Amino acid sequence: MPRPQKPRLICQLPDHKNYGPYNHSGLEIKTIVLLLDELETIRLIDFEGCNQEEAANQMNVARTTIQRIYGEARKKIADSLINGKQIIIEGGEYILCNKNCEKCSKSKRFRKIND
User: Domain spans of the chain?
Assistant: First the structure.
């Protein structure tokens, strides 16, 4: 029997949940579901510039878990770009933290920049 999945800590829900090609032909476009924890991993590593260890600490999971989630997310995004599939962002085992938590305040996304 596998261990129960540990919920991942994510800092924010996405503003947009659908991405993909515009349907000119009227034919049905295939879709891929990108889980919220996969999006958070992409945000932390690719957008925020965190390494895998920092992303794992922020999401409250092991580094090996982040590595696996990151690999799965990149495959889904590549499949969408190469094969013209729509990405729908939803689901997954996650806990939404508030923006005042210690981990979010250390994130570049919520840091105030002094002018």
Answer: 29-108
